[in-house]
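Weekly structure sync, notes
Attendees: PL (lead), two postdocs, one rotation student
Agenda item 3: pending single-chain targets
PL asked that the sequence for the first pending target be pasted directly into the notes so everyone works from the same version. It is reproduced below exactly as submitted, 147 residues in total.
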Amino acid sequence: MAEFKPPPKTMILRLYRSPLGLLLGRFILLLTTRGRKSGLPRVTPLQYEKVDGDYCLGSARGVKADWVRNILTCPEVELQVKNKKISGKADVVTDPMKIADFLELRLRRHPVMVGRIMEMDGLSRAPSRAELEAYAVNLAMVIVHPV
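Predicted structure, written out during the meeting:
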């Protein structure tokens, strides 16, 4: 089986800024962080879930992801969701139980897409809670609270 490779970041950014951005914005937002060393703005397209007015983002690379490391240094971020700009404060979560809750929510909302992602990561398409908790140990989640 061929390894899944996501489209390049630049392609997603171009599509997001085109008329297709309104469609992509249903699943993907643009997160702007400040580079932890340079202080320059860094834009990252990410899948998201909106929960009780907050925006939840998952990091498959855990706290090793550059955008998460930037947030650990400077939690003030900006989001673009469709054509709406939002300022917020981001909290990094590494608790596997909370991340498993987030994964369960994503599976409920998007069973086909998230189930397929789980399969590509070696889990079953409908993983048990125990599987999700074990999987979540190496992940991180970021919750952005709009300000």
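Discussion points:
- Strands lie at 28-34, 41-47, 49-51, 54-59, 76-81, 84-93, 140-146.
- The helical segments are 9-16, 21-24, 66-73, 96-109, 111-120, 129-136.
Action: rotation student to compare against the earlier draft before next sync.
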